[in-house]
Each structure stands twice: as structure tokens, then as C-alpha cells.
């Protein structure tokens, strides 16, 4: 990934979390901490909304993960 591109770094980090949970057989991603869940949710949110908006995000099944978790509060803490 391009080290000067922060989005690339975040997506690479999130992909590593998802790879780890897949290898561990952790379908509900319970092994991730709050910060890791927030980063993963942010990447889902960004990629889905960039491609098709919030309707696509919800239709793709990510709505509960994004809106059912305290993502907004975590993002506020990150500033």
C-alpha cells in the first residue's frame, strides 16, 4: 500500500482484521476490540456509501453493524 495515502493504510489494516477473524473462525468478530470494530465499520461505511449510498450499505447487510453499534460515538472520540 501507499504509505502516503492514509485511506490505503486504514483499508489495509481493516483487511488484516477481517483476515484474522476469518482464519480464527470468528464469524461475529467478537475477538475485535472497540477500536478495531470502529475502523472496520468506517471502512464498510466509506466503501459502500462511495459506491451506492446508504441504500447500498443497508442492502448489502452492513446497516446493523454500522447503526447498531456505537460507531458514531467512537468516531467522535477519534475526532
Keywords for this structure?
single chain; mainly alpha; 0% strand; globular
Task: Describe, in plain words, how this protein is organized in 3D.
The protein has 79 residues and is mainly alpha-helical. It is 73% helix and 0% strand. It contains four helices and no strands. The chain has helices spanning 6-24, 34-59, 63-67, 71-78. The longest helix has 26 residues, at 34-59. It is globular, with a radius of gyration of 13 Å.
Write the layout of secondary structure elements.
Elements (H helix, E strand, L loop, with lengths): L5 H19 L9 H26 L3 H5 L3 H8 L1
Give the count of helical stretches: 4
Helix-strand category: mainly alpha
Could you tell me the radius of gyration in angstroms? 13 Å
Instruction: Give helix and strand order, one letter per element, not per position.
Output: HHHH
Number of strands: 0
Amino acid at each position: 500500500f501507499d504509505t502516503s495515502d492514509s485511506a490505503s493504510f486504514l483499508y489495509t489494516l481493516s483487511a488484516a482484521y477481517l483476515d484474522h477473524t476469518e482464519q480464527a473462525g470468528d464469524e461475529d468478530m467478537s475477538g475485535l476490540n472497540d477500536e478495531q470494530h470502529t475502523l472496520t465499520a468506517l471502512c464498510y461505511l466509506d466503501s459502500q456509501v462511495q459506491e451506492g449510498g446508504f441504500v447500498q450499505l443497508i442492502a448489502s447487510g452492513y446497516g446493523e453493524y454500522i447503526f447498531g453499534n456505537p460507531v458514531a460515538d467512537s468516531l467522535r472520540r477519534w475526532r
